[in-house]
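Cross-posting from the chemistry board since nobody answered there.

I work mostly on the small-molecule side, so proteins are not my area. We synthesized magnesium ion and want a rough idea of how it might sit in this target. Sequence and SMILES are below. Is it possible to get a predicted 3D structure of the two together?
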Amino acid sequence: MKSISITSGKGGVGKTNISINLALALAKRGLRVLLLDADMGLANVDVLLGIHAERTLYDVVTNDLSLRDILVHVSDHLDLLPAHSGVLRLERLSDTDRTRLVDELDGLCEGYDALLIDTGAGIGENVLFFNDLADRVLLVTVPEPTALTDTYAMIKILNRSYGVDSMSLIVNQAATAAVAANVHEKLEEVSDRFLGLSLALAGSLPSDPAVCSAVQARTAVLEHDGESPFARGIRAMAARLASELEGLPRRQQSFWRDWIERQLRTRALSNQPRSQLHSHPECEEPSTLQNKH
Ligand SMILES: Nc1ncnc2c1ncn2[C@@H]1O[C@H](COP(=O)(O)OP(=O)(O)O)[C@@H](O)[C@H]1O
Ligand SMILES: [Mg+2]
């Protein structure tokens, strides 16, 4: 099983629509996919899929239900773990809640080829935690200067504080492929220069009215308008991702042990004196992102 998080620095850039459609596209390719709604407190995967979730992750952390109890079958090869909207308990998961979720995921994930995690936006603890769990982080951005600076902030924190070094970029709502390439080039350049990190382009998606109409119809774009430019872009991305996932090394250890090790590494990194980090020339803020592209 391989885990992929779909995340962003800035909110409202298309994470949930991309997560749902990418999950569906991978499932249609024959992979057994589990989609986790990890935008805790502002969950909406179920809403966008037209599903009424009776039980959610909230019941897992408060009522001792297991993840299997809340699992929703969406379609062939695709299951969903829904979350709850408007509850602070999920927004502020405690260490115990997180440990419990990871422990439960460990058992459940055995039956799947891929775990897709739709996270919230920004550098909040929950978001960073779920990205830390993933084998591959997909960062969604749109071609706006504010989104670019927020994306870089996310890259920097994930890399510097959590040791995440496997991130790829999705440029959503790009007018042309050239615009997406330009956005990727800029972020790749600063990531390389300031963090020594390479940032691949996982794909780009056009601004497409089919997304809005699928949202209105509470169904995936792939089902609503399978030949729309957005749906085609998603399928192309899923094809690349599927072969990339095959290439990723199989987990030697359980999900749980892996995570614990990463936590220890994180702690080791964050124990570095802050002055040491800040005096490092690589920690200077890149001004290039604020320039007009
Ligand atoms: N490629 C796109 N073309 C047109 N509209 C889009 C596109 N991607 C996202 N949107 C719109 O942007 C809004 C936010 O999308 P959503 O997936 O909920 O973002 P996030 O999960 O990052 O908050 C939605 O209303 C959706 O209709
Ligand atoms: Mg969302």
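Reply from a structural biologist on the board:
Welcome over. Reading the output above for you: The chain has 14 helices and eight strands. The chain has one domain: 2-290. Happy to explain the token format if needed.
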